[in-house]
């Protein structure tokens, strides 16, 4: 069995399609090697090997060791060096890499193969004693930390002590002799902590390191990262063992990281940082402050040009913006890693549009691959309303690491942030710097601020990936973990105080700043036009008011999929008439109240029809139980009695009479219209009179009347008769006719099961997946919070079923109803109007079921459009 895949010398056993087996890093190293890019030779131990290792009681499978030795022989040949040979030593890096990118989750060991003899040999051969012992001390530090779990700080502080003794500030001001000294001190720490001598044998070092990488796959922080990012179904990590190249060989050497375009704005320029005379870990670790990549242009212009050329090649090969790690060894450039770069929403749009312009991808590829629905979501998030801010107190300005505005209460530990989030607070996480242990708290926060670190620090990279506003390296403020506060010297902010951060400008501001909706760029509009070229499922919106509908139309909505009429009942004067109607104990009084409500309803519908001009408007008849409209406190009940000139006792009795044990399963939906047909009559009249008026005013109207909570054909027939009779009266009164549709929600499981009995009487079905989920699971939407966290934790459900449609159960009902409905009535129009209509995964499902449209809240309309297009491509 093949456990090991080699790469190097312009060839490779693997390629970039083999992520599952070789991990992202391994697959890309193989690909780059094939493409002829300068990659040091190496080998990748497969993810299957990691899986077998765990299944096999943490032992290596038969044959693995021999294949590794073979891989080392290949590298030795390539470099003319020998593993453990002091004359001309081959040193190795041992790197983890799973199929999904998990930044910083698993650890790397560099300079492996070092021992006293090898270090002396390397010093002699290169004539660079400093370099040899710098590499040696790094190896002991990393091996101890990664493999033996000795905290890195022990070595850090030993180094600091030595620097203090020598009176120097930077690591590379230490002399070669100092570094020899440091190696001895490090070995002593190792002996003290483990009780063993530091291992001399390179092969032993390698075995230990490989096992440590396997082990890191199941570390707590790796598991947590996978959970938060919903990474499931991976079998393990691959291990990359690669010949070292050295960035710490002097002033013409160095290491860096870069994005091929600006990951915040998408601007077409190299964006990154590097350090001279350093190994790559230093750039990420933040021990020395890196320089911006543009300085390399002056320092080593040839290398810079080569880097630029290489990035173009990579973008073409991968058809995506790349995130690259590189090392320069004595003016020679090596690429050590490439992957698709994380970026913000605005950057994703700009890069997609530019890539098409530059001919790197076509429109279809851009829509399918270069912008995710989550990135689009970011563009639709609010920003600070600068005009509404009078005197904002800026207490610090840091690096704008991830754009957008965030307001929340500040917390100082990941744990506190997570706890605060659970109680429903908006949280800002403040840390000196973040590490992978903080991802839980970062995820729970609206925004993140750190007082240390650069644009590629952990906080910056993770926040950008999630689209959370983030300010890093804000050294104007001092964070004090002990008393949980931060200060700029003048103002002190304590745990739980409000703070606002602007990830676009880097500002940190006291208090709660007001927010405003975002402004959409021309690139956004262009991109969304392409999206619509590849989309064939319609997207409508859920809106009750003309202004929301207008907003949604701007976002590209092609109609209203759900107008909830009861929302209008609460506004202003109307609630009085609604209550009067409910209080009346005979039909005559009820009709009088309804007659007074009619003009209000009509006015609302008129606004909607005019706003939607040419697009369909689905209006749902009254749905909630009447109880919801009545007052609940004694004082309010007394006021109501006075207002209507009736006795308090009567009010109390009426409220009590309407009280239900299970209102959501009670007297609501079509059941109201069946008991009180006059309500259905009034609403039908309001809808159709408004439609006629809008038409007379020049609008094209397509009214669709929707009956909620149908569970049988006969229920629909009953309501349909009321609607049709009323319609005929309206047409007669007005002396004109218009076309309209009558349809039903499918939201009671029984309706889905007998859809063939309902379809003959319906012009359309609209899946009300909120109620359908509630009734299929028997989970009350309002009470699920009590047990859902346990269900998610124990994987009894994988998602909140009210957010992402449960395809197995609820989805089966949707599919069944769609099939039965269409079989009975070919061409029956099908849509969905539950919250799921704005969830990309659920939208993909709807597309597969052949639904005609999804309907979602206005701000999710662009997301639904993109999700539908990506599914269609
Ligand atoms: P991560 O997944 O955390 O980015 P990597 O495996 O990419 O870890 O290693 C981190 C850094 O170690 C790299 O960016 C690079 O600078 C350095 N490194 C890895 N392999 C080599 C190598 N063969 N030669 C020199 N430096 C290396
Ligand atoms: Mg890396
Ligand atoms: Mg419903």
How would you characterize the overall build of this protein?
This protein has 873 residues and is α/β, with parallel strands linked by helices. The strands form seven sheets. An eight-stranded mixed β-sheet has the order 15-25-24-17-18-19-20-16. An eight-stranded parallel beta barrel has the order 27-28-29-30-31-32-33-34, surrounded by seven helices. The protein has a six-stranded antiparallel β-sheet with strand order 2-1-3-8-6-7, with helices on both faces. β21 (478-480) and β22 (485-487) form a beta hairpin. α5 (129-148) runs parallel beside α7. The protein is elongated. The protein starts with a strand and ends with a helix. Adenosine-5'-diphosphate binds next to β6, β8, α10, β12 and β13.
């Amino acid at each position: 069995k093949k456990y090991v895949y080699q790469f190097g010398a312009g060839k490779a056993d693997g390629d970039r399609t083999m992520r599952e087996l070789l991990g992202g890093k391994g697959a890309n190293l193989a690909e780059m090697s094939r493409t002829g890019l300068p990659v040091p030779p190496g080998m990748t131990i497969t993810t299957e090997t990691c899986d077998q290792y765990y299944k096999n009681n943490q032992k290596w499978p038969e044959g693995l060791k021999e294949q590794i030795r073979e891989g080392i022989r290949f590298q030795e040949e390539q470099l003319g060096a020998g593993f453990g040979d002091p004359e001309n030593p081959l040193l190795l890096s041992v790197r983890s890499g799973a199929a999904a990118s998990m930044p910083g989750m698993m650890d790397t060991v560099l300079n492996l193969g070092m021992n006293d003899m090898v270090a002396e040999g390397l010093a002699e051969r290169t004539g660079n004693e400093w370099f040899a012992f710098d590499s040696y001390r790094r190896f002991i530090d990393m091996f101890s930390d990664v493999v033996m779990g000795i905290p890195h700080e022990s070595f850090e502080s030993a180094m600091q002590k030595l620097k203090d003794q020598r009176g120097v500030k930077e690591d590379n001001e230490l002399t070669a002799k100092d570094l020899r000294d440091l190696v001895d001190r490090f070995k002593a720490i190792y002996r003290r902590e483990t009780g063993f001598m530091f291992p001399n044998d390179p092969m032993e070092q390698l075995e230990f390191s490989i096992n440590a990488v396997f082990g890191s796959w199941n570390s707590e922080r790796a598991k947590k990262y996978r959970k938060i990012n919903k990474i499931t179904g991976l079998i393990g990590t691959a291990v990359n063992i690669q010949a070292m190249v050295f960035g710490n060989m002097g002033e013409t050497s160095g290491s860096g990281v870069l994005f091929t375009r600006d990951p915040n704005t998408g601007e077409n320029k190299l964006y990154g940082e590097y350090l001279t005379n350093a190994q790559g870990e230093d750039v990420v670790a933040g021990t020395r402050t890196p320089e911006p990549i543009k300085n390399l242009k002056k320092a080593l212009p040839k290398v810079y040009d080569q880097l630029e050329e290489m990035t173009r090649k990579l973008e073409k090969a991968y058809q995506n913006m790349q995130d690259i790690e590189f090392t320069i060894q004595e003016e020679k450039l090596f690429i050590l890693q490439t992957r698709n770069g994380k970026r913000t929403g605005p950057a994703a749009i700009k890069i997609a549009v530019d890539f098409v312009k530059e001919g790197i991808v076509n429109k279809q590829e851009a829509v399918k691959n270069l912008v995710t629905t989550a990135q689009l979501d970011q563009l639709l998030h609010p920003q600070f309303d600068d005009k509404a801010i009078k005197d904002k107190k800026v207490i610090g300005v840091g690096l704008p690491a991830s754009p957008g505005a965030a307001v929340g209460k500040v917390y100082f530990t990941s744990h506190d942030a997570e706890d605060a989030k659970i109680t429903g607070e908006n949280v800002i996480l403040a840390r000196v710097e973040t590490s992978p242990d903080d991802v839980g708290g970062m995820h729970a926060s609206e925004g993140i601020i750190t007082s240390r670190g650069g644009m590629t620090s952990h906080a910056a990279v993770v926040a950008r990936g999630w689209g959370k506003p983030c300010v890093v390296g804000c050294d104007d403020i001092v964070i004090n973990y002990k008393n949980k506060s931060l200060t700029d010297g003048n103002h002190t902010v304590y745990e739980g105080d409000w703070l606002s951060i602007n990830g676009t400008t880097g500002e940190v501001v006291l208090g709660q700043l007001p927010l405003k909706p975002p402004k959409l760029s021309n690139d956004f509009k262009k991109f969304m036009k392409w999206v619509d070229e590849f989309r064939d499922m319609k997207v409508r919106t859920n809106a009750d008011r003309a202004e929301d509908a207008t907003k949604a139309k701007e976002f590209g909505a092609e109609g209203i999929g759900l107008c909830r009429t009861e929302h209008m009942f609460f506004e202003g004067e109307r609630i009085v008439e609604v209550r009067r109607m409910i209080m009346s104990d005979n039909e005559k009084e009820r009709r009088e109240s309804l007659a007074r409500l009619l003009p209000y309803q009509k006015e609302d519908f008129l606004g909607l029809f005019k706003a939607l001009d040419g697009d369909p408007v689905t209006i749902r008849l009254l749905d909630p139980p009447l109880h919801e409209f009545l007052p609940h406190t004694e004082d309010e009940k007394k006021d109501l009695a006075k207002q209507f000139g009736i006795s308090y006792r009567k009010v109390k009795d009426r409220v009590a009479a309407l009280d239900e044990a299970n209102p959501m399963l009670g007297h609501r939906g079509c059941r109201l219209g069946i008991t009180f047909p006059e309500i259905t009559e009034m609403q039908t009249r309001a809808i159709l009179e408004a439609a006629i008026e809008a038409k007379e005013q020049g609008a094209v109207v397509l009214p669709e009347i929707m009956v909620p909570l149908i569970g049988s054909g006969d229920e629909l027939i009953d309501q349909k008769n009321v609607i049709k009779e009323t319609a005929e009266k309206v047409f007669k009164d007005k002396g004109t006719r218009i076309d309209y549709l009558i349809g039903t929600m499918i939201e009671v499981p029984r309706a889905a099961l007998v859809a063939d009995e309902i379809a003959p009487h319906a012009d359309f079905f609209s899946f009300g997946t909120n109620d359908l989920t509630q009734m299929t699971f028997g989970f009350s939407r309002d009470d699920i919070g009590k047990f859902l966290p346990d269900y998610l934790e124990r994987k009894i459900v994988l998602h909140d079923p009210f957010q992402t449609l449960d395809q197995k159960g609820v989805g089966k009902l949707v599919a069944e109803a769609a099939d039965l409905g269409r079989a009975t009535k070919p061409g029956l129009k099908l849509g969905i109007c539950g919250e799921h209509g704005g969830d990309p995964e659920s939208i993909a499902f709807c597309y597969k079921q052949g639904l005609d449209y999804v309907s979602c809240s206005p701000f999710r309309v662009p997301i639904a459009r993109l999700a539908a297009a990506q599914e269609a491509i």
